[in-house]
Amino acid sequence: MTTFAVIGAGWRSEFYIRLGQLMPEKFELIGTVVRNSQRAADLQADYGISIFESVTALLQFARPDFVVVAVSWASNPEIIEEFVSLGIPVLCETPPAPDAPALRALWSAVGSSDLVQVAEQYLYLPGHAARLTSVREGAIGIPTSVEISSTHGYHAVSLMRSFLTTRYEPAEIAARTFVAPLIDPLSRDGWNEDLSANPRTTTIATIDFGDGKSGIYNFVENQWHNQLRHRRIVIRGSAGEIVDNHLIALTNGTAIVESEFRRYQLGIDLNLDGFDLEHISLNGKVIYKNPLVGLRLMDEEIAIATLMMAMRDWVSGATHAPYPLREACQDHLISLAMDVSSLTGKTVRTERENWTN
Question: Residues near 24 by Cβ (< 8 Å), separated by ≥ 6?
Fold first, then answer.
């Protein structure tokens, strides 16, 4: 049994609380550190968990195997450093620090500890996990470019870097923004009352990772929730490409074939095995299996729960690190460069940082 604690009381914190309670055979939630009394009361009422007013109070009660830090960007570094100083492994929400100087300072403070992982869950989303497996198995040859229009900033950069297997080389980023009317029917809280078209900003950026590898970023405000905008991903390689769930590739030297990533979903029509994703297949081969069949989770929850299990296994020494701090620092460095380029209209170049050594 792996014990953990959650630091913070925001929207993301509840994912870890809820998922931990859904996996009692794997996790024991010691409690949550919450400073806001009303949020503390709400969480205690909703989940029946132990609430602590401070890290000190938490640790006087019990020492967890790891902590999830889900606080504001600005608060992340201080809390991460506090737990690292105590020798407690940390899984922190993205990004680990708000800006480039803070990233460098955080790495200088805790980088050598090898105690910090980052909750970059997008690589664990079933669709992306299946695509990543196929790319690493050589389905499209050498991956050369990734275009993403679904999520923002460092999450998109993480996907690009993972599919392209880029490391920490200098990159050149050119970004522009465009404002156009768009109806925004849904937000995190549900349907909006105002269904008129309002100005929304789209950011489009190109990223030159070097060595012939590139990324195209296309994100409109609230695209996570706005169902009027498709989520798109294009992964191009030397022998084919993936567009969303469609693959085209050269095979046997003389044939071009097309395939689909197929989701096998339980609970449809007369399937009475519960509403669950069971697996994703490609060319008749199962390429991704849902490790949590039976919990009836949406993809985002599957991704976060899978990351939690990877953190558990890493803490126990059973497997490799799920997403080290240096990777998240590099993602956010490039994301920040996109922000600077979109504001100034100039191409921005990142350089090698201390976390690359």
Answer: none
